[in-house]
Design goal:
Layout lengths: L2 H19 L3 E3 L2 E3 L4 E5 L6 E6 L3 H20 L2 H17 L1 H12 L3 H21 L8 E3 L3 E9 L3 E4 L5 H15 L3 E4 L6 H12 L7 E3 L4 H10 L5 E5 L2 H10 L6 E5 L5 E4 L5 H13 L11 E5 H17 L18 H17 L2 E4 L14 E4 L6 H4 L6 E7 L2 H9 L3 E2 L1 E5 L3 H10 L4 E4 L14 E2 L2 E2 L4 H8 E9 L11
Parallel strand pairs: 7-8, 7-10, 8-9, 10-11, 12-13, 12-18, 13-16, 15-16, 18-19
Antiparallel strand pairs: 1-2, 3-4, 5-6, 6-22, 11-21, 14-15, 17-20
Helix pairs in contact: 1-4, 2-8, 3-5, 3-7, 4-5, 5-6
Bound molecules: nicotinamide-adenine-dinucleotide.
The site of nicotinamide-adenine-dinucleotide has 32 residues, from helix 8 and helix 9.
Length: about 500
C-alpha cells in the first residue's frame, strides 16, 4: 500500500465513530447535542465527514455556566497539580498525534508533512505552559519605608477561546494551555469549517483528568455560538484568532460586558530581500513561508520585496521552483500544497488572481485550478506588482505570492510599512547595521532576520496595527489570563491624616 492508501485506511477507522454519533459538544464533562446539526465536509472532494452539533446561545449559556461552576476549584488547585494534569494531556496528544494529524489534513486540506508536526507542537504547548503553572501566581515585593506592597496574580475567570480553521489544533492549544495553566476555565468555540480536532482535544483533556467543566466545547457558527460567547456575562475574556474584521465585531459585541480581548488577526507580511543577501537561503525561506500550509497561514510572507539589482535573477529562480511545487492529496506525504478549505475561500483566492491581472501585475506562475474535484489551486506568483495594488495590500490567505521591486532601503521600508497589517516581517541581508536599523523601523510584532518563522515558546507572539492586540507566549500569556493584585501592608510607622479630630 502507498502511504496515501495507508493514511486513508487509518483515517477511515478514526472517522467511523463520528459517522454514527456526529461531533457532539462537550459541556461539564458530558456529550451534549445542539439545537440541530451542521455538516463538515472535506476540501479534497466535498464529501461529508460528519454532522456537527449546532450550538447556539442556549448551548453557550450552559457551557459558560459549567465553566463558572468549575472555576473556584480549578483556580484554587495547587499549580503543581495543574502541571501534572497538563503534562498528562500532552502525553495523550502525543499518543494520538497521528489521528489528530490525519483528521486535520482531511478536515482542512493542509498537507500531512506540516500537520503531523503541528499536532506535536500542540503537545509542546501543553508541556511548556504546564511547567509555568506552579509559578503563574507569583508576584513581586515592592517595599517603601511605610508599606510592604505585595503583588500576586489571579486567574481572571472563565474565558472564551474562538479559533479559526487553518491550523485549528495547534492554535487551540496555544490558547487553551496557558488559560488552563493560569487557573482559568474555558469555553472553546472552534471554527465551523474544521471542528474535528477540537472534539479530540476535549476528549483528551477529559481522559487526562481535567475536572468536568474546566474545558467546554461548543460548536457552531460565528454569528450564533461565537457571538453569544463574546456577549456572555460569565465570560471574562475572549482569546480570539481570526480575521481582523471579525476582531472588530467581537470588540463591539463584548463592549457591554467589558470583555478583555486578545486578538491574533490577519497579516500581509513582507519578506524583504536585499541585494547582499544569501539568495539561496532567502529563496528557500520565501517559498516556504508563502506556500507551506497552503498559504493559509497568518504569518505567511505574502509580499516579496526584492531589490532591483537582483530582482530578475531572483524571479527566475522563483518561477522555476514555484512551478515545481507538488499539489496533491493532503494525506500524501509527498504533497506540498493541498486544497483550499472550501468553495467560498477558493472563490476569494482565485478572485485575487483576476484582480492582480486586471491591476497590471504579471502572472508569472499558476493561478489555475488543479483537477475538477476539490479546491486545489496551482501555487501562484505575481511579479512586477506595485505597492498600491489590492494584491499587495489585502490578505489573500492562499498560495499566492506578490512580488514588488524596490530601489533602496528607504523605499523598501515605505513599502513594507505601507499596509494596514503588522504581524511579521522577514529581512534578508548580510549587512548587520542595516538589519538592525531596518528591523527597528519595520512595523511588525515579530521579525526574523535571515530566517523563516521559527518559534521559541518563551518569546512574545502577536501583531501590531490591524494584525492584533496583545501578546502570547511565555509570561505574556499569563498577563492576559490573569489579574494582578497589589496588597499594601502598613508597617505602622506613617502618620494617617486625622480629619474631624
Ligand atoms: P474568521 O474571523 O472568519 O473566523 C474565526 C473564528 O471566529 C471562527 O471560529 C468563527 O466562527 C468565529 N466568528 C466569526 N464571526 C464571529 C462573531 N461575530 N463573533 C464571534 N465569533 C465569530 O477567520 P477564519 O477565516 O476562520 O481564519 C482566517 C483568519 O485568521 C485569517 O485572517 C488569518 O490571518 C487569521 N489568523 C491569524 C493568526 C494569528 O496568529 N495572527 C493565526 C491564524 C489565523
Amino acid at each position: 500500500m502507498t502511504d496515501l492508501a495507508t493514511h486513508l485506511a487509518k483515517l477511515d477507522r478514526h472517522l467511523a465513530r463520528f459517522r454514527d454519533t456526529g461531533i457532539l459538544n462537550l459541556i461539564a464533562g458530558r456529550d451534549v447535542a445542539g439545537e440541530g446539526w451542521f455538516e463538515t465536509r472535506s476540501p479534497v472532494d466535498e464529501s461529508l465527514i460528519a454532522r456537527v452539533a449546532l450550538g447556539d446561545a442556549r448551548t453557550v449559556d450552559a457551557a459558560a455556566g459549567a465553566a463558572r461552576a468549575a472555576f473556584p476549584d480549578w483556580a484554587a488547585m495547587p499549580g503543581d497539580r495543574r502541571r501534572a494534569i497538563l503534562h498528562r494531556i500532552a502525553d495523550l496528544i502525543e499518543a494520538r498525534a497521528e489521528e489528530i494529524a490525519l483528521c486535520e489534513c482531511w478536515d482542512t486540506g493542509q498537507a500531512w508533512r506540516f500537520m503531523s508536526k503541528a499536532a506535536l507542537r500542540g503537545a509542546e504547548n501543553f508541556r511548556f505552559f504546564a511547567d509555568l503553572a506552579p509559578g503563574a501566581r507569583d508576584g513581586k515585593a515592592l517595599p517603601t519605608p511605610d508599606h510592604l506592597n505585595v503583588t500576586s496574580r489571579h486567574p481572571i475567570g472563565p474565558v472564551g477561546v474562538i479559533t479559526p480553521w487553518n491550523t485549528p489544533f495547534m492554535l487551540s492549544t496555544w490558547k487553551i494551555a496557558p488559560a488552563l495553566a493560569a487557573g482559568c476555565t474555558v469555553v472553546h468555540k472552534p471554527a465551523e469549517l474544521s471542528p474535528l480536532s477540537a472534539r479530540i482535544l476535549a476528549e483528551i483533556c477529559h481522559e487526562a483528568g481535567l475536572p468536568a467543566g474546566v474545558l467546554n466545547l461548543v460548536n457552531g457558527f460565528g454569528e450564533g455560538a461565537g457571538k453569544a460567547l463574546t456577549e456572555h456575562p460569565d465570560i471574562k475574556a475572549i482569546a480570539f484568532v481570526g480575521e481582523s474584521r471579525t476582531g472588530s465585531m467581537i470588540m463591539r459585541q463584548g463592549a457591554d460586558t467589558l470583555k478583555r480581548v486578545h486578538f491574533e488577526l490577519g497579516g500581509k507580511n513582507p519578506v524583504v530581500v536585499f541585494d547582499d543577501a544569501d539568495l539561496d537561503r532567502a529563496l528557500d525561506a520565501a517559498i516556504f513561508m508563502i506556500y507551506s500550509l497552503n498559504g493559509e497561514r497568518c504569518t505567511s510572507s505574502s509580499r516579496l520585496l526584492v531589490q532591483d539589482a537582483i530582482a530578475d535573477r531572483f524571479h527566475e529562480m522563483l518561477v522555476e521552483r514555484v512551478g515545481n511545487i507538488r499539489v496533491g492529496h493532503p494525506l500524501d506525504p509527498e504533497t506540498e500544497v493541498g486544497p483550499l478549505i472550501d468553495r467560498t475561500h477558493f472563490g476569494k483566492v482565485t478572485g485575487y488572481v483576476g484582480i492582480g491581472q486586471d491591476e497590471g501585475a504579471t502572472l508569472a506562475v499558476g493561478g489555475t485550478r488543479v483537477g475538477e474535484a476539490g479546491w486545489f489551486l496551482r501555487p501562484t506568483l505575481f511579479t512586477d506588482a506595485r505597492p498600491g495594488m489590492r494584491i499587495a495590500q489585502e490578505e489573500i490567505f492562499g498560495p499566492v505570492l506578490t512580488s514588488i521591486r524596490f530601489r533602496d532601503e528607504d523605499e523598501a521600508l515605505r513599502i513594507a510599512n505601507g499596509v494596514a497589517y503588522g504581524l511579521t516581517g522577514y529581512v534578508w541581508t548580510n549587512d548587520l547595521t542595516r538589519a538592525l536599523r531596518f528591523s527597528d523601523r519595520l512595523e511588525a510584532g515579530m521579525i526574523w532576520v535571515n530566517s523563516e518563522n521559527v518559534r521559541h515558546l518563551p518569546t512574545p507572539f502577536g501583531g501590531v496595527k490591524a494584525s492584533g492586540i496583545g501578546r502570547d507566549g511565555g509570561d505574556w500569556s499569563f498577563e492576559f489570563y490573569m489579574e494582578t493584585k497589589n496588597v499594601a501592608f502598613a508597617l505602622g510607622r506613617h502618620r494617617i491624616q486625622r480629619l474631624g479630630a
